[in-house]
What does this fold into?
Amino acid sequence: MTNLSDQTRATDPVGMIAELEAVLTVEELDRDLYRGVRQPGGRGRVFGGQAIAQALMAAAHSTDPDRPPHSLHAYFMRPGDETIPIIFRVNRDHDGGSFSTRRVVAFQKGEPILNMAASFQRVEKGLEHQVAMPDVPPPEDLPGEAEERLRIVDQVPEQFRQYIWQPRPFEFRHASRWTPMEAEPQEPAQAIWLRAVAPVSGGPDMHRAMLAWVSDMHLLSTGARPHGLSWLKGNAQTASLDHALWFHGDLRVDDWLLYVTDSPWGGGGRGFNRGMIFTRDGRLVASASQEGLMRKR
It folds into this structure.
């Protein structure tokens, strides 16, 4: 397996996607025991989406290929350390006629950092319905988030500016109003186009893992909008507490997807957020939910 521990992060589109694929390709150490490499150049906390995506890949390795995942539910227990790999232990709880259930515990230094349950189902035909995709401007008519971030970089506290400049393996285009530096309350809802910055060479499991990775972005911030909070302003303390994701159909993360989020509730130091992910032609291919720590600094 490629050792990424001492590499610096790629900055070109093809390199960033190849690097993310390598991070999400877990290594089998023994039956139902896997290792996920660290993020190249990582120095802080593990991104929650990375831990979820690697755990999903580990669970998928223990399940028949004809049973793709349809849901996962994860709890974050401790902050992960980006400077060391993560060990994933898979428990094969159930294999029925149609469904398989797996539990995955992620460890670092002998302590669990994430606990996840995932369910897999044999593909079958069934009754179908879905909500309509919102009518929003197409991605070609919108500026990229990188361009929007440059407009506010002078307003961002210096300790966060490195994040503004850092290239990412996904590009985002806001189809709803995005003003993270404004103090005025905003509607607790967003609509964001997203797409991998280069073609993904992996199969369906890799596309689902990458969707799990990116679904942890922009979801938690939805609940902070009505309170005028943003980590970019340094006035918010936020952290993901749990994350759930349901897969409804086939998808490719290197095609445009629309992430529609809302936050119906906040209180008790927590914010609850929901998301729906549509393909460009309007198919609902995934849904997400997340509760996170939300405190004013």
The mean pLDDT is 94. The first strand starts at residue 27 and ends at 30. The helical segments are 13-24, 48-61, 145-152, 161-165, 204-214.
